[in-house]
Every structure is written in C-alpha cells, then in structure tokens.
Amino acid sequence: MKELVIVSGKGGTGKTSLTAAFAALATNHVVSDCDVDAPNLHLLLAPKVEKTEDFIASKVASINPELCTDCFACKESCRFDAISEELTVDPILCEGCGVCKLVCPVEAVKLEATLSGHIYTSETEYCPMAHALLLPGEANSGKLVTRVRQLAKELAKEKKRKLLLVDGPPGIACATIATISGASAGVVVIEPTVPAIHDMERALQLFAHFKTPVMVVINKFDLNLQKSKEVEAYCAEQGVEVVGHIPFDDMMTKAVVAGKPVVTYAPQHRLTKALNDAWARIEKRLEHHDS
C-alpha cells in the first residue's frame, strides 16, 4: 500500500478541494483527513459515519476539598493560572502537566483523563474514509493524527485497497510532522502569492527531513503568472516536479457550495481537465516509489 500526503505551507491554498477531487478520481483507495484541528474534507465527500471512537489523550487536575489544607502550593506552582483563589481548577486553562499534584503535601490533587476528540470510520461515494475532530482547546493533535492514519491503514488492509490518500494539515507543526512521517510521497499545494516560495520551502524542507519524495501543485496559477514562473524556477532548482497547474475559476466555489468535488460537479469543465492531468502525473510518480 502506498500513502500519498497532500499538504500546504499555509492554510487557504485550496488543498482540501484538490484532495477531494483526487479522492473522486483515484481508484482502489482509502481517504483520511488528518487536519484534525479544523477538518473539512467531509464537507465535500459527505461521509456516512459507521463507527465513532472517543479520543482520550489529555488530563485535567482536580482538587479534593476534603483533603486540601489550603496551603496554596498548587496555585503558586501553576504557571498556567488554572487554579483559582478558591483552589478550584479551570479545565480550560489546565494543561495537565501534573505540577500541582507533585507539590501537594497531602495528595489532594489527582489527574483525570478527559475526552479530547472523536475519531470516525465512514463510507463515502468514492471510498472508505477515516477522519477525526479535536475538541476546541485540546492539545495532542499529533497523537490524534497518528491514530487516524493507523485507522486508515487498517481500513485499507481490511478492504484490500492499495492507496491511502491523506488530506494533511497546513504548516509545519506537530500535526503535519505526524502526517508526513513514513508516507510514500507528498504533494505540496501552493498559490502564486508573494510568500508562496517561502511557505513552499518550509514544507519541502520537512519532506526532505523525512526523505519523502514530493511534488508541487500550483493552484490558481493564472492569478499571477510571474509568481507561478518563480515557483517553477525554484522547484526546478530543487529538483521538485510541478505536476499540476490549476486555473482560477469560480466553478470551484460553486462545487464547494454544492458540497461536491469539482470533478463530479462539473465533469467537462476546464478545472476537471487540469485536475485529471495533475492526478495522472501524480499516479505516474507514485508507480516509481515503493510503499
């Protein structure tokens, strides 16, 4: 099985719209949404949830008033100001670090596991799907991404699928690192803007760190042809293939509003042709990489 990760150096490049289109064009595959902080691939693939799993990763402190001696050691040691003057814990501010438990002389503090999010196994019109949602304010997005990828691989093995298509998070933080690590290949989606090369450069460095083959797709390339040429020149210098030039067209917006991948919403449109061409090049590159 091969795993293709689609990411972007920043949010808002159209990464998820392109991923949805590729999910509709691919065959024999499973798709997963690893942008767990703000997932939206489900808005275009309309998954029917078949199974829900709780994600429990964080801990929150609680103070037993019957044991507490009001020494305030916990409050004085809490760098997150999560403990009030009444010696109660604010679960939103608490980071679960355990310092309050460590300094309490009478063991009045305990750490309790708390719900951090939900993981879903679903079926779409195009393929099975693994996705998740981290609850607001919760951390451990990297752990949740790892679990979603694991679930997607289990689905692929169970259903004998040969490709795992991953909608990754933007940027280069923990969740992106957890998404890229161990993947077969990657695609970086960018737009021809002033910071485009900088954003792309950071993403390419991350792929290089993991020795993962990577390609680039320029979305809305015709909005700034000069910047698109600069992106192409930079990629040529780095030995990275630009596999797609997707034009700007309001048909993409119409497809998003309709809640469908543009390739199924407008199968004869120029956007669909450009996405078909890009996907054909990506598949060709994937054939040359071991899983």
Plain-language structure description:
- The protein has 291 residues and is an alpha/beta fold.
- It has 2 domains: 2-46 and 124-286, 3-Layer(aba) Sandwich (Rossmann fold), CATH 3.40.50; 56-115, Alpha-Beta Plaits, CATH 3.30.70.20.
- Helices cover 37% and strands 26% of the residues.
- It is built from 11 helices and 9 strands.
- Helix 1 (15-25) crosses helix 11 (270-286) and helix 5 (141-158) packs parallel to helix 6.
- The longest helix is centred in the middle third of the chain and has 18 residues, at 141-158.
- The chain is elongated, with a radius of gyration of 22 Å.
- It starts with a strand and ends in a 5-residue tail after the last helix.
How would you concisely characterize the structure shown here?
By secondary structure, this protein is an alpha/beta fold.
Domain tally: 2
Task: Please give the radius of gyration in angstroms.
Answer: 22 Å
How many alpha or pi helices? 11
Secondary structure: number of strands: 9
Please tell me the CATH architecture of the largest domain by its name.
3-Layer(aba) Sandwich
Q: What is the straight-line distance between the termini?
A: 6 Å
Q: How much helix, percentage-wise, in residues?
A: 25-40%
State the name of the first-level CATH class of the largest domain. Alpha Beta
CATH superfamily of the largest domain: P-loop containing nucleotide triphosphate hydrolases
What name does the CATH topology of the largest domain carry? Answer: Rossmann fold
